[in-house]
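User: tokens in, sequence out, please.
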């Protein structure tokens, strides 16, 4: 049930991101304007990610996720009906708030219902469902644009989101373990102290580098396509290719991590991401197919691993707060990266942004290489 809900949320989330990017580029947006669009989408998490995480710890992820799906659908309506760039910004902000609630709620559900030894596998299942949604969304939006019209594709995304809302409401009735109540004092630990717990800042930093690349790909790749005269339908196929490879990269991921270790899996995947972004920046247009394939692995395998890594470093009563901190770091990077690119290297267009993003993933490689993984595996909190 959670996998179906996650798939539906990602169809809407990615669909509205791709639609917003396409509409902005159609109205002459460049790196700076797209950076502003991404920043507005990220703004709700900058303000409330840790607070929403703590809310998940208190009331459970299911209720938070259901509220998020409803808000996300409202934001989609605002974007789809936007007559100008200003309303696109408003719709993106509402969608960002909905995405924050829905995704943190879903991640908290997995944390509450998974035993430590099954955590990576369960996160792999949920993130695989997310990748299927990410595969379908650009095909629906861009395929609709090329065929029956963008409105038809968007309507399909919205209908899928409504199904996700029904599933999310039903899930509210399923009980969750919110941790031992005698540990409730830990819920009030400030976010900066959570970040200073051993290993947390490395896991959060690595997560942010991966997640910001996923998020900004949907906003920035339409600019790459526009600069190289790539048709909208081909853009949708490239984004779907990335999501499809991400699905494949998560099959049997828990077994791969157990066999060769966390460090090798993460550093290898991140290195592929660096290579892919450099290809998008400087290689011929046809290399985009290779680049998006590499990004499928680079952005697919690390996500479930970094989720399990992060919550393994904190007690169960702080899982939501830690996941909120993880998302806050991602959204901070989502604001800083494109705004920096827009301010410093706007004339360079997409290549300048891609090279900065490649540097961010290279930094994440370093964080992973210096992290502590007991016996090569993910850490487990010992109470």
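Assistant: Sequence out:
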């Amino acid at each position: 049930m959670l996998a179906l809900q996650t798939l539906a949320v990602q169809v809407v989330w990615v669909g509205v991101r791709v639609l917003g990017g396409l509409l902005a580029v159609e109205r002459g947006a460049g790196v700076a304007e797209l950076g502003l669009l991404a920043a507005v989408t990220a703004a709700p998490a900058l303000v409330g990610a840790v607070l929403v995480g703590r809310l998940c710890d208190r009331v459970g992820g299911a209720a938070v996720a259901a509220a998020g799906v409803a808000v996300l659908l409202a934001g989609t309506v605002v974007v789809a009906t936007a007559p100008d760039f200003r309303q696109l910004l408003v719709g993106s902000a509402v969608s960002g708030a909905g995405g924050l609630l829905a995704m943190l709620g879903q991640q908290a559900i997995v944390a509450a219902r998974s035993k430590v030894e099954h955590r990576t596998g369960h996160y792999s299942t949920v993130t695989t469902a997310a990748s299927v949604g990410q595969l379908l969304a650009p095909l629906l939006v861009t395929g609709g644009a090329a065929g029956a019209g963008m409105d038809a594709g968007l309507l399909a995304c919205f209908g899928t989101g409504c199904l996700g809302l029904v599933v999310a409401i039903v899930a509210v009735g399923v009980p969750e373990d919110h941790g031992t109540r005698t540990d409730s004092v830990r819920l009030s630990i400030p976010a900066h102290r959570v970040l200073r717990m051993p290993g947390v800042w490395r896991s959060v930093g690595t997560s942010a580098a991966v997640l910001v690349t996923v998020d900004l790909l949907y906003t920035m790749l339409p600019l790459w396509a526009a600069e190289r005269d790539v048709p909208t339908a081909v853009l949708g196929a490239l984004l779907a290719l990335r999501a499809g490879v991400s699905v494949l990269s998560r099959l049997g991921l828990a077994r791969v991590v157990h066999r060769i270790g966390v460090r090798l899996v993460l550093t290898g995947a991140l290195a592929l991401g660096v290579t892919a972004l450099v290809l998008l920046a400087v290689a011929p247009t046809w290399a985009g197919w290779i680049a998006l394939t590499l990004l499928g692995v680079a952005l697919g395998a690390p996500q479930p691993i970094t989720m399990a890594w992060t919550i393994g470093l904190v007690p169960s009563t702080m899982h939501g707060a830690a996941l909120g901190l993880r998302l806050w770091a991602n959204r901070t990077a989502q604001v800083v990266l494109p705004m920096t690119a827009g301010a410093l290297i706007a004339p360079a267009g997409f290549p300048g942004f891609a090279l900065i993003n490649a540097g961010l993933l290279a930094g994440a490689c370093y964080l992973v290489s210096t992290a502590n993984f007991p016996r090569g595996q993910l850490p487990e909190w010992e109470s």
